[in-house]
Protein backbone atom coordinates (compact mmCIF):
# COMPACT_ATOMS: atom_id res chain seq x y z
CA UNK A 1 0.00 0.00 0.00
CA UNK A 2 1.24 3.47 -0.78
CA UNK A 3 2.55 5.86 1.81
CA UNK A 4 -0.14 7.72 3.71
CA UNK A 5 0.95 11.31 4.09
CA UNK A 6 -0.68 14.16 5.96
CA UNK A 7 -0.10 17.80 5.22
CA UNK A 8 -1.15 19.98 8.16
CA UNK A 9 0.06 23.55 8.23
CA UNK A 10 3.39 24.20 9.80
CA UNK A 11 1.75 26.77 12.03
CA UNK A 12 -1.89 26.27 13.02
CA UNK A 13 -1.74 29.57 14.87
CA UNK A 14 -1.46 31.50 11.61
CA UNK A 15 -4.55 29.75 10.25
CA UNK A 16 -6.54 30.39 13.38
CA UNK A 17 -5.64 34.08 13.39
CA UNK A 18 -6.69 34.36 9.74
CA UNK A 19 -10.06 32.79 10.44
CA UNK A 20 -10.56 34.95 13.52
CA UNK A 21 -10.06 38.10 11.42
CA UNK A 22 -12.74 36.92 9.02
CA UNK A 23 -15.01 36.01 11.92
CA UNK A 24 -14.79 39.54 13.32
CA UNK A 25 -16.23 40.90 10.07
CA UNK A 26 -19.03 38.35 9.87
CA UNK A 27 -19.32 36.40 13.08
CA UNK A 28 -22.04 34.14 11.83
CA UNK A 29 -20.13 32.75 8.85
CA UNK A 30 -19.38 29.45 10.58
CA UNK A 31 -21.11 27.02 8.25
CA UNK A 32 -20.73 23.61 6.76
CA UNK A 33 -19.42 22.76 3.34
CA UNK A 34 -22.80 21.80 2.00
CA UNK A 35 -25.00 24.74 2.95
CA UNK A 36 -23.76 27.99 4.37
CA UNK A 37 -25.50 30.08 6.97
CA UNK A 38 -27.59 32.68 5.18
CA UNK A 39 -26.63 35.75 7.17
CA UNK A 40 -28.69 34.69 10.18
CA UNK A 41 -28.42 36.26 13.60
CA UNK A 42 -29.04 34.53 16.90
CA UNK A 43 -32.66 35.10 17.88
CA UNK A 44 -34.11 35.07 21.37
CA UNK A 45 -35.76 31.73 20.61
CA UNK A 46 -32.37 30.23 19.77
CA UNK A 47 -30.90 31.51 23.05
CA UNK A 48 -33.62 30.08 25.26
CA UNK A 49 -33.93 31.76 28.62
CA UNK A 50 -36.84 29.61 29.81
CA UNK A 51 -35.70 28.47 33.28
CA UNK A 52 -38.11 25.52 33.11
CA UNK A 53 -36.45 23.92 30.10
CA UNK A 54 -33.21 22.01 29.78
CA UNK A 55 -30.99 22.51 26.74
CA UNK A 56 -29.34 19.35 25.45
CA UNK A 57 -26.41 19.09 23.06
CA UNK A 58 -27.10 16.08 20.85
CA UNK A 59 -24.65 14.29 18.55
CA UNK A 60 -26.21 12.31 15.70
CA UNK A 61 -25.12 10.05 12.87
CA UNK A 62 -27.13 9.47 9.72
CA UNK A 63 -27.20 7.96 6.26
CA UNK A 64 -28.04 10.88 3.97
CA UNK A 65 -29.30 8.90 0.99
CA UNK A 66 -33.03 9.27 1.69
CA UNK A 67 -32.87 12.79 3.07
CA UNK A 68 -33.29 16.11 1.28
CA UNK A 69 -30.54 17.54 3.44
CA UNK A 70 -30.34 18.16 7.16
CA UNK A 71 -32.38 21.37 7.53
CA UNK A 72 -36.13 21.13 8.00
CA UNK A 73 -38.26 21.60 4.86
CA UNK A 74 -42.06 21.67 4.81
CA UNK A 75 -42.54 19.18 1.96
CA UNK A 76 -39.47 16.92 2.14
CA UNK A 77 -37.98 14.40 4.54
CA UNK A 78 -34.98 15.89 6.33
CA UNK A 79 -32.70 14.93 9.21
CA UNK A 80 -33.96 17.68 11.50
CA UNK A 81 -37.58 16.94 10.61
CA UNK A 82 -37.20 13.27 11.56
CA UNK A 83 -35.30 14.12 14.74
CA UNK A 84 -37.89 16.69 15.83
CA UNK A 85 -40.66 14.14 15.31
CA UNK A 86 -38.83 11.62 17.51
CA UNK A 87 -38.42 14.20 20.29
CA UNK A 88 -42.10 15.13 19.95
CA UNK A 89 -43.09 11.50 20.38
CA UNK A 90 -40.83 11.24 23.41
CA UNK A 91 -41.90 14.33 25.37
CA UNK A 92 -45.36 14.91 23.93
CA UNK A 93 -44.78 18.44 22.64
CA UNK A 94 -43.07 20.01 19.63
CA UNK A 95 -39.42 21.08 19.79
CA UNK A 96 -37.06 23.12 17.62
CA UNK A 97 -33.69 21.63 16.76
CA UNK A 98 -30.74 23.63 15.44
CA UNK A 99 -27.70 21.92 13.89
CA UNK A 100 -24.12 23.10 14.02
CA UNK A 101 -23.55 22.11 10.39
CA UNK A 102 -25.90 21.75 7.46
CA UNK A 103 -25.54 18.99 4.90
CA UNK A 104 -27.03 18.59 1.44
CA UNK A 105 -29.17 15.76 0.12
CA UNK A 106 -27.18 12.53 -0.03
CA UNK A 107 -24.43 13.65 2.35
CA UNK A 108 -23.83 11.41 5.37
CA UNK A 109 -22.70 12.20 8.91
CA UNK A 110 -20.56 10.21 11.29
CA UNK A 111 -21.22 12.93 13.84
CA UNK A 112 -23.22 16.12 13.51
CA UNK A 113 -24.12 18.23 16.54
CA UNK A 114 -27.35 20.04 17.37
CA UNK A 115 -29.14 21.49 20.37
CA UNK A 116 -32.71 21.21 21.59
CA UNK A 117 -34.70 22.64 24.51
CA UNK A 118 -36.87 20.17 26.42
CA UNK A 119 -39.40 21.13 29.08
CA UNK A 120 -40.43 18.02 30.99
CA UNK A 121 -44.13 18.25 31.79
CA UNK A 122 -45.96 15.67 33.89
CA UNK A 123 -48.39 13.58 31.85
CA UNK A 124 -50.42 12.77 34.94
CA UNK A 125 -50.61 16.35 36.18
CA UNK A 126 -50.65 18.70 33.18
CA UNK A 127 -48.76 21.90 33.90
CA UNK A 128 -46.50 20.37 36.52
CA UNK A 129 -42.85 20.72 35.57
CA UNK A 130 -40.64 17.76 36.45
CA UNK A 131 -36.84 17.61 36.81
CA UNK A 132 -35.02 17.24 33.44
CA UNK A 133 -34.36 13.82 32.01
CA UNK A 134 -30.86 12.44 32.35
CA UNK A 135 -28.91 12.51 29.04
CA UNK A 136 -28.80 8.73 28.74
CA UNK A 137 -32.59 8.56 29.12
CA UNK A 138 -32.97 11.11 26.31
CA UNK A 139 -30.61 9.15 24.05
CA UNK A 140 -32.34 5.79 24.55
CA UNK A 141 -35.88 7.18 24.26
CA UNK A 142 -35.24 9.23 21.12
CA UNK A 143 -33.41 6.34 19.45
CA UNK A 144 -36.41 4.13 20.19
CA UNK A 145 -38.65 6.40 18.14
CA UNK A 146 -36.02 6.98 15.45
CA UNK A 147 -35.82 3.25 14.75
CA UNK A 148 -39.52 3.31 13.93
CA UNK A 149 -38.88 5.86 11.15
CA UNK A 150 -36.56 4.18 8.59
CA UNK A 151 -33.77 3.87 11.16
CA UNK A 152 -31.31 6.01 9.20
CA UNK A 153 -30.66 8.50 12.03
CA UNK A 154 -29.24 7.66 15.45
CA UNK A 155 -28.36 9.70 18.52
CA UNK A 156 -24.81 8.79 19.56
CA UNK A 157 -24.28 11.20 22.47
CA UNK A 158 -26.21 13.66 24.65
CA UNK A 159 -24.98 16.29 27.08
CA UNK A 160 -26.69 18.93 29.23
CA UNK A 161 -25.53 22.46 28.40
CA UNK A 162 -26.50 25.96 29.58
CA UNK A 163 -29.57 27.53 27.98
CA UNK A 164 -27.34 30.11 26.28
CA UNK A 165 -25.27 27.46 24.52
CA UNK A 166 -25.63 27.44 20.71
CA UNK A 167 -24.46 24.41 18.73
CA UNK A 168 -23.68 26.38 15.58
CA UNK A 169 -21.73 29.23 17.14
CA UNK A 170 -19.84 27.06 19.60
CA UNK A 171 -18.51 24.88 16.79
CA UNK A 172 -14.78 25.53 16.53
CA UNK A 173 -13.72 22.96 13.93
CA UNK A 174 -15.32 20.73 11.33
CA UNK A 175 -13.85 17.63 9.71
CA UNK A 176 -15.14 16.10 6.49
CA UNK A 177 -14.21 12.79 4.89
CA UNK A 178 -14.68 11.82 1.27
CA UNK A 179 -14.47 8.20 0.04
CA UNK A 180 -13.25 7.06 -3.39
CA UNK A 181 -13.44 3.44 -4.52
CA UNK A 182 -11.10 2.79 -7.45
CA UNK A 183 -11.31 -0.20 -9.76
CA UNK A 184 -12.86 -1.37 -13.05
CA UNK A 185 -15.63 -3.52 -11.56
CA UNK A 186 -19.02 -2.02 -10.63
CA UNK A 187 -19.50 -1.12 -6.99
CA UNK A 188 -21.02 -3.68 -4.67
CA UNK A 189 -24.62 -2.96 -3.75
CA UNK A 190 -23.33 -2.77 -0.15
CA UNK A 191 -21.45 0.37 -1.20
CA UNK A 192 -24.35 1.96 -3.08
CA UNK A 193 -24.51 5.71 -2.38
CA UNK A 194 -21.62 5.43 0.08
CA UNK A 195 -18.65 6.37 -2.14
CA UNK A 196 -17.61 7.79 -5.52
CA UNK A 197 -16.65 5.00 -7.90
CA UNK A 198 -13.61 5.83 -10.03
CA UNK A 199 -12.95 3.15 -12.69
CA UNK A 200 -9.40 4.39 -13.34
CA UNK A 201 -6.38 3.87 -11.11
CA UNK A 202 -5.56 6.85 -8.91
CA UNK A 203 -2.09 8.32 -8.46
CA UNK A 204 -2.01 8.75 -4.68
CA UNK A 205 1.31 10.57 -4.52
CA UNK A 206 0.23 13.21 -7.05
CA UNK A 207 -3.00 13.76 -5.12
CA UNK A 208 -1.01 14.24 -1.94
CA UNK A 209 1.21 16.79 -3.68
CA UNK A 210 -1.89 18.69 -4.80
CA UNK A 211 -3.06 18.76 -1.18
CA UNK A 212 0.12 20.65 -0.27
CA UNK A 213 -0.86 23.37 -2.73
CA UNK A 214 -4.35 23.75 -1.27
CA UNK A 215 -3.75 23.40 2.47
CA UNK A 216 -3.42 26.63 4.43
CA UNK A 217 -5.04 30.05 4.24
CA UNK A 218 -6.12 31.10 0.73
CA UNK A 219 -8.70 32.93 -1.31
CA UNK A 220 -10.86 29.93 -2.28
CA UNK A 221 -13.05 31.73 -4.81
CA UNK A 222 -12.31 28.94 -7.30
CA UNK A 223 -13.68 26.40 -4.85
CA UNK A 224 -17.00 27.90 -3.79
CA UNK A 225 -20.19 27.30 -5.69
CA UNK A 226 -22.37 29.95 -7.25
CA UNK A 227 -24.84 31.26 -4.72
CA UNK A 228 -22.35 31.32 -1.87
CA UNK A 229 -23.23 34.29 0.33
CA UNK A 230 -20.12 34.33 2.48
CA UNK A 231 -18.74 37.85 2.70
CA UNK A 232 -15.17 36.67 2.25
CA UNK A 233 -13.70 33.83 0.15
CA UNK A 234 -10.78 33.55 2.56
CA UNK A 235 -10.68 30.26 4.38
CA UNK A 236 -8.00 28.27 6.18
CA UNK A 237 -7.67 24.56 5.56
CA UNK A 238 -5.91 23.25 8.66
CA UNK A 239 -5.66 19.81 7.08
CA UNK A 240 -6.15 18.36 3.61
CA UNK A 241 -4.81 14.92 2.80
CA UNK A 242 -5.54 11.71 0.90
CA UNK A 243 -5.02 8.31 2.50
CA UNK A 244 -5.42 4.79 1.17
CA UNK A 245 -7.37 2.64 3.62
CA UNK A 246 -8.82 -0.87 3.77
CA UNK A 247 -11.86 -1.21 1.55
CA UNK A 248 -15.10 -1.87 3.41
CA UNK A 249 -17.12 -3.90 4.12
CA UNK A 250 -14.08 -5.97 4.98
CA UNK A 251 -13.98 -9.69 5.76
CA UNK A 252 -10.85 -11.79 6.39
CA UNK A 253 -9.38 -13.70 3.45
CA UNK A 254 -8.61 -17.41 3.45
CA UNK A 255 -4.98 -16.68 4.29
CA UNK A 256 -5.88 -14.33 7.15
CA UNK A 257 -8.25 -16.86 8.64
CA UNK A 258 -5.35 -19.31 8.82
CA UNK A 259 -6.92 -22.34 7.20
CA UNK A 260 -3.51 -24.06 7.22
CA UNK A 261 -3.75 -24.28 11.02
CA UNK A 262 -7.10 -26.10 11.08
CA UNK A 263 -5.56 -29.37 12.23
CA UNK A 264 -3.35 -27.81 14.90
CA UNK A 265 -5.91 -27.84 17.66
CA UNK A 266 -7.25 -24.28 17.24
CA UNK A 267 -10.40 -24.23 19.44
CA UNK A 268 -11.96 -21.47 17.30
CA UNK A 269 -12.08 -23.58 14.14
CA UNK A 270 -13.85 -26.74 13.16
CA UNK A 271 -11.35 -29.67 13.04
CA UNK A 272 -13.51 -31.55 10.55
CA UNK A 273 -13.24 -28.75 7.97
CA UNK A 274 -11.06 -29.91 5.07
CA UNK A 275 -7.94 -27.95 4.28
CA UNK A 276 -8.47 -25.54 1.39
CA UNK A 277 -6.14 -24.55 -1.39
CA UNK A 278 -4.92 -21.00 -0.71
CA UNK A 279 -3.49 -20.37 -4.17
CA UNK A 280 -6.42 -18.36 -5.53
CA UNK A 281 -6.32 -15.18 -3.48
CA UNK A 282 -7.10 -11.54 -4.13
CA UNK A 283 -4.15 -9.18 -4.33
CA UNK A 284 -4.05 -5.58 -3.10
CA UNK A 285 -4.81 -4.42 -6.63
CA UNK A 286 -7.94 -6.56 -6.83
CA UNK A 287 -6.48 -9.17 -9.19
CA UNK A 288 -7.35 -12.81 -8.60
CA UNK A 289 -4.24 -14.91 -9.23
CA UNK A 290 -3.14 -18.52 -9.06
CA UNK A 291 -6.54 -20.21 -8.95
CA UNK A 292 -6.14 -23.94 -9.50
CA UNK A 293 -9.40 -25.42 -8.23
CA UNK A 294 -12.08 -22.73 -8.68
CA UNK A 295 -11.93 -21.71 -5.02
CA UNK A 296 -12.12 -18.06 -6.10
CA UNK A 297 -15.35 -18.42 -8.06
CA UNK A 298 -17.97 -16.06 -6.67
CA UNK A 299 -15.47 -13.94 -4.73
CA UNK A 300 -15.79 -10.25 -5.56
CA UNK A 301 -12.63 -8.36 -6.43
CA UNK A 302 -11.98 -5.57 -3.96
CA UNK A 303 -11.69 -1.93 -4.97
CA UNK A 304 -8.92 0.28 -3.66
CA UNK A 305 -10.32 2.76 -1.17
CA UNK A 306 -9.04 6.31 -0.71
CA UNK A 307 -10.24 8.87 1.83
CA UNK A 308 -9.82 12.63 1.54
CA UNK A 309 -9.79 14.43 4.89
CA UNK A 310 -10.56 18.16 5.05
CA UNK A 311 -10.46 19.98 8.38
CA UNK A 312 -11.14 23.65 9.05
CA UNK A 313 -13.15 25.94 11.26
CA UNK A 314 -15.53 26.75 8.44
CA UNK A 315 -15.99 26.00 4.75
CA UNK A 316 -17.46 27.82 1.79
CA UNK A 317 -20.54 26.55 -0.02
CA UNK A 318 -19.64 23.20 -1.66
CA UNK A 319 -15.94 23.86 -1.02
CA UNK A 320 -15.08 20.30 0.00
CA UNK A 321 -16.77 18.69 -2.99
CA UNK A 322 -15.07 21.09 -5.39
CA UNK A 323 -11.69 20.38 -3.79
CA UNK A 324 -12.32 16.65 -4.08
CA UNK A 325 -13.29 17.06 -7.73
CA UNK A 326 -9.92 18.63 -8.43
CA UNK A 327 -8.01 15.98 -6.47
CA UNK A 328 -9.77 13.21 -8.37
CA UNK A 329 -8.69 14.79 -11.67
CA UNK A 330 -5.11 14.89 -10.43
CA UNK A 331 -5.36 11.23 -9.46
CA UNK A 332 -6.57 10.19 -12.92
CA UNK A 333 -4.07 12.41 -14.75
CA UNK A 334 -6.61 14.90 -16.11
CA UNK A 335 -4.89 17.65 -14.12
CA UNK A 336 -1.35 18.21 -12.90
CA UNK A 337 -0.35 19.69 -9.57
CA UNK A 338 0.58 22.89 -11.43
CA UNK A 339 -2.93 22.99 -12.90
CA UNK A 340 -4.41 22.91 -9.41
CA UNK A 341 -2.25 25.84 -8.39
CA UNK A 342 -3.43 27.77 -11.45
CA UNK A 343 -7.08 27.00 -10.62
CA UNK A 344 -6.56 28.29 -7.08
CA UNK A 345 -4.90 31.47 -8.35
CA UNK A 346 -7.65 32.04 -10.97
CA UNK A 347 -10.08 32.92 -8.13
CA UNK A 348 -13.16 31.98 -10.13
CA UNK A 349 -15.26 28.84 -9.88
CA UNK A 350 -15.45 28.67 -13.67
CA UNK A 351 -11.82 27.48 -13.60
CA UNK A 352 -12.64 24.52 -11.36
CA UNK A 353 -13.44 20.96 -12.38
CA UNK A 354 -16.95 19.58 -11.70
CA UNK A 355 -17.50 18.95 -8.00
CA UNK A 356 -17.66 15.46 -6.56
CA UNK A 357 -21.07 13.83 -6.00
CA UNK A 358 -22.67 14.08 -2.59
CA UNK A 359 -22.78 10.33 -1.96
CA UNK A 360 -19.11 10.02 -0.98
CA UNK A 361 -19.10 12.90 1.51
CA UNK A 362 -19.26 12.39 5.27
CA UNK A 363 -19.36 15.02 8.00
CA UNK A 364 -16.87 13.34 10.29
CA UNK A 365 -16.79 15.50 13.40
CA UNK A 366 -17.81 18.87 14.77
CA UNK A 367 -15.46 19.99 17.53
CA UNK A 368 -17.33 22.19 19.99
CA UNK A 369 -16.26 24.65 22.63
CA UNK A 370 -17.62 23.84 26.07
CA UNK A 371 -18.02 26.13 29.06
From TrEMBL:
It comes from Arabis nemorensis. Belongs to the tRNA pseudouridine synthase TruA family. It is an enzyme of class 5 (isomerase). Coiled coil: none annotated. CDD domains: PseudoU_synth_EcTruA. Keywords: Isomerase, tRNA processing. Residues 59-169, 210-369 form the Pseudouridine synthase I TruA alpha/beta domain. This is tRNA pseudouridine synthase. The keyword Signal does not apply. HAMAP family: TruA. It comes from the Eukaryota. Its EC number is 5.4.99.12. The keyword NADP does not apply. Pfam families: PseudoU_synth_1. GO terms for molecular function: RNA binding; tRNA pseudouridine(38-40) synthase activity. GO terms for biological process: tRNA pseudouridine synthesis. It catalyses: uridine(38/39/40) in tRNA = pseudouridine(38/39/40) in tRNA.
Amino acid sequence: MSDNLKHPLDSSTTCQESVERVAKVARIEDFSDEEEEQGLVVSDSELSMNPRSQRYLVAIEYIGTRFFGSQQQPTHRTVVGVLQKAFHNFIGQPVKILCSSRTDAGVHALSNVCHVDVERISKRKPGEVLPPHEPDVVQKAVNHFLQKNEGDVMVIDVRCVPNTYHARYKARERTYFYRFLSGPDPLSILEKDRAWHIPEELDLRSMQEACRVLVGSHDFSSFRANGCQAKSPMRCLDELNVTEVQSTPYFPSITERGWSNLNNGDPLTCPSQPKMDTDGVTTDTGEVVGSTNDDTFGIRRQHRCYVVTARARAFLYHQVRLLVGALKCVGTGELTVSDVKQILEAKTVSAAKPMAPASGLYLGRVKCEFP
